[in-house]
Amino acid sequence: MSDLQSNLDKLSGYLERFRRDGVLNHIAGEARPALSGATFDNATPVDESHICKVARSDAADIDAAARAAKQAFPAWAAMDGKERKKILHRVADLIVERAEEIALCECWDTGQALRFMSKAALRGAENFRFFADRAPAARDGQMLPSPTLMNVTTRVPIGPVGVITPWNTPFMLSTWKIAPALAAGCTVVHKPAEFSPLTARLLVEIAEEAGLPKGVWNLVNGFGEDAGRALTEHPDIKAIAFVGESRTGSMIMKQGADTLKRVHFELGGKNPVVVFDDADLDRALDAAIFMIYSLNGERCTSSSRLLVQSTVADQFLEKLTARVNSIRVGHPLDPKTEVGPLIHKTHFDKVCSYFDTARENGATIAAGGARIGDTGWFVAPTLFTGASNDMTIAQEEIFGPVLTAITFDTEEQALAIANDIPYGLTGYVWTSDLTRALRFTNALEAGMIWVNSENVRHLPTPFGGVKASGIGRDGGDWSFEFYMETKHIGFATGQHPIPRLGA
Ligand code: NAD
């Protein structure tokens, strides 16, 4: 039996329960349909076949979930950090035990290739372990004595929070947002993306099996405009951690204004990979390809704009074109597949519309530029060359396996092009000149920059973007800064004079 067939057989077993029950909400420890009874259909992008029904929730379900989170908050917040640590490590253990189920369901739901998704489940477990270990010290503050006062600071969890996640790598991203919230002592209402609901359901079940008290983590499925919106407007929800498109972030900020929501945004990107002629060009080529064509290009940190120095552009682009044409597009459950289908038809149509845009812009389609097959949302890995930075294909986030290549002559030009964009999530710089690397990264407008490297995440480092790519940072202690309030308490150390009004 082929690896693909064996994975399909296993998947069929794992999907059984979703076919039977659909994807239910999870509120106060109970699996529940939407209060209205409404559902929507979930299909796989692999062959457009129906997977299951999903609860289509509205403001009433969000209200029930927010109340549950509010009720569970005092006990969870008061729990000894060491206890929270133990529970969160158990969550990680169970994620590892069910990594295969998570990975297969995620691939079928999203079209992501198994070669990347098997690691995403393990990375999700790592997120839990990382923040579990920091839970006991999350409240620690500083001692800032003054002549008359012993000033101390402490941190307290902000309260019940809303977490809204997108459909690209939904499992990993959910763990990345929810693990620190729980470690901080917050309770959670999670609204996953409507296009990829399966693994969010597995995750909340795993968490309760691991001993998480009922109501600490609530799951509400549904669309952004009703369930998502209601979550951002709910008065009991103190903060919204959001990952998704920049324009959705802007909507959420408006929706949360009346209740003064604290917001944390991880948004879109159109990230430059800048290749100078003194770089290790073979490694730069591998990294540039990996960072745009892995995860179907549906990756916020993808290197979607290649800026290559004109002195080496011809040879670099020739090798790049050959490699792009050799990328293996196929069934996501086939371990050999490098690029799977795009998440759904609307997104597929959007990505494909850029093929015409590229022609209209006057660029060259050097590779790809077409659909593959006539079932499922498969797109050929695509390379646009001869582009300039003012073209639509260089300015807009395409969010597919599509790379726009631009040439430059000087370092000043490269910097100007790299920064001439509304986004600022990541940047990748390839050069062997250390002084140039220091100068260039200092001036590059991005929240995260890698020099002579692809994106290699290290969880203690800050993650987030500038400009239209986000507000706030995750990772390390930055996550706790978002999910907690810092408090100052001053204790008088003597009888300092107090101004005596009216005495
Ligand atoms: P999206 O903004 O369309 O949806 C994200 C989530 O927001 C979904 O759960 C959706 O239901 C919800 N939503 C939509 N409208 C809402 C509203 N009015 N109120 C509340 N919630 C609402 O994004 P997407 O298409 O699912 O994901 C792709 C985008 O996410 C890309 O732009 C990508 O760059 C970005 N992304 C960013 C990061 C990062 O870390 N910066 C990571 C992954 C994805």
Features:
single chain; alpha/beta; Aldehyde Dehydrogenase, Chain A, domain 1; 2 domains; 7-stranded mixed β-sheet; 16 helices; binds nicotinamide-adenine-dinucleotide
Overall body shape:
globular
Associated small molecules: nicotinamide-adenine-dinucleotide
**Structural class by secondary-structure content:** alpha/beta
- Please mark out the parts with pLDDT under 50 across 5 or more consecutive residues, or reply none: none
Distance between the termini: 92 Å
Percent of residues in helices: 40-55%
Biggest beta sheet attributes: 7 strands, mixed
Give a written overview of the molecule:
- The longest helix has 21 residues, at 114-134.
- This protein has 503 residues and is α/β, with parallel strands linked by helices.
- Helix 6 links the parallel strand 6 and strand 7 (188-191).
- The protein is globular.
- The strands form 6 sheets. A 7-stranded mixed beta sheet has the order 13-14-15-12-11-17-18, with helices on both faces. A 6-stranded mixed beta sheet has the order 8-7-6-9-10-20, sandwiched between helices.
- Helix 3 runs antiparallel to helix 5.
- It is 42% helix and 19% strand.
- The protein has 2 domains: 3-267 and 469-487, Aldehyde Dehydrogenase, Chain A, domain 1; 272-451, Aldehyde Dehydrogenase, Chain A, domain 2 (3-Layer(aba) Sandwich), CATH 3.40.309.10.
- Nicotinamide-adenine-dinucleotide is lined by residues 164-168, 173, 191, 193-194, 223-225, 228-229, 232, 243-245, 248, 251-252, 255, 266-269, 300, 397, 399, 425, 465, 469-470.
